[in-house]
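Session log. Operator J.P. requested a structure for one protein chain; no other inputs attached. Running the standard single-chain path with token output.
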Amino acid sequence: MAMAVGGSGSGPQASINMTPMIDILLVLLIIFMAISPVTPHGLDTLAPQPPPPNQQQNQADDRTVVIVIDKAGNVKINQEDSSWPKLEDRLVDIFKTRAEKVVFVKGDPDLEFQTIAHAIDIAHAAGIDKVGLMTPKVEAGQ
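Structure written below.
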């Protein structure tokens, strides 16, 4: 608190000194910024779910699109040969009439992840909303 001296003669007047309050406010702001959680954003992925026991396997296969990348880096879409330059155009052709745009990527275990990430980037460029990764455990239904 500050005090005015002299002049008016009406006695001491109390007024709030704003400088310490602003300092406290800034310190609290920095503290809350430091403790707020920062959520990292990575690749959005899905895992294909095994069909229910009552459902036939053929119905799930008709709708599922899987990009398979073998050890040599060759690309297939649902067992149909394709190539890296034609992959985006082929995915656009497949998904232009579908409302649900989901594709799964299955890569050889010996591949570097950058090859699989490149396929994911191409799928996103083709306008596919969700890209899932297939692993050996997912294929086995575990």
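Operator note: The beta strands are 2-3, 14-15, 66-69, 75-77, 80-82, 102-107, 130-134.
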